[in-house]
Structures are given as C-alpha cells and as structure tokens.
Amino acid sequence: MTGIIILAAGSSSRLGQPKQNLVYKGKTLLQRTIETAMASIGDLVIVVLGANEEVIGPTLTGYNVTIIQNPDWSEGMASSIRTGLQSVLQLNQRVNSVILMLCDQPFVDTYIVNMLVAAKTKEGICACEYNDIIGPPVLFDAVYFDELLALTGSEGAKKVIRNHAEKVKRIPFDLAGIDIDTPADYKNLV
After folding, report:
1. Residue 23: left if φ>0, alpha if ψ -120 to 50, beta else—which one?
2. What three-state secondary structure class fits 49?
C-alpha cells in the first residue's frame, strides 16, 4: 500500500501570502495537488498543514483526505515529513511506501504519481529528475521510514536521497522543476 503525504505546512515567506491558496486554473494549488493525489493509485492521502492553517483549512472541505496539523511547522520541512509519516502509519500499518508531494508544483499530475508507484524497485526510492536535480515528488519504500522519521530542522527528504543516490530510480519530468516560491513565479504561471 502506498500513502501520499502532501507537505503544505510552510509559511510561504518568500511569497508573502499562503501559496497553498493561490488560484491556478480555477482551483488553489493545494486543491489541485489533493485532486491529483486522490485520482492516483495511492491508497490514502494525508495533508500536513501548519502556518496559516486557519485560512487554508476552510478551502479543503469536501475532500476525502486526512488533514493533520503540524504544530512544529516552524522547525522546517523535516517536522512535516515526520508528522505526515507518523500519521500514515497510525492510519494504516500496511502502508509499505509513501510518496512525498509538495503543494507548489502545479504541473505534477496523476500520471507522474502513478509512474512513481509503478517504477518502484527493490531499492525503493523513485524520484523525479529535472534540471539535473533529483527531487519531489518522490516515493520511499518502508525501509527508509526510520531515516525519514529521523530528519530534523529544515532538511527535507533530499538528505535520504543523497545517502542512497546509487539506489534512486529516476523518472525524467522536467515540469517538476516549476514551483511557486515568489510573486514572480506566480506571475509567470498565470
């Protein structure tokens, strides 16, 4: 079973407003990410919120996902990965892999999420490759759960990927390199 963890707890400090609520093609970035995850072959979807939860949460009514509040969101991405993974394992202990998704990659679609699941190898890490970068969305087999749970501070899952670079199955997907971090990024999107 594959759980999908959508990391959406950040404060969007470079953008100056919650990127999760930016509208693209009639839906917020977070709504689009949730719909992509729900339409995939993943078995359960967790959304990790933190900063600005009071304005993001109300936009998510009607979605059949589990929404988790990360009280330690200001620590950095590692706390959201830990919070999301702990929640997945509490909901279903049969989960043997997780996909980490970000809410600010508007061109990640169901096809690429399904490709990550289909490409899973015995080594157990499948990641997108774009602009000579290996990054999200990324699938981790359960063998890496302890390493993900041990992450701290602002380090994301890239640390685990770097530690096992020779085992990573790369899925070429140039559009994963487009993410929304600044007002200019958003202006270029719309």
Report:
1. beta
2. strand
CB atoms within 10 A of CB 175: 13
Residues in the chain: 190
Tokens 């087999």 locate to: 141
pLDDT, tens only, 85-115: 999 999 988 999 999 999 999 999 999 999 9
Task: Measure CA 68 to chain center.
Answer: 13
Which two tokens mark 84?
């999301």
> What does the angle CA 182 – CA 50 – CA 104 come to, to the nearest 5 degrees?
35
Output the pTM of the full model: 0.94
Between CA 92 and CA 112 the distance in angstroms is 24
Q: SS3 for 100?
A: strand
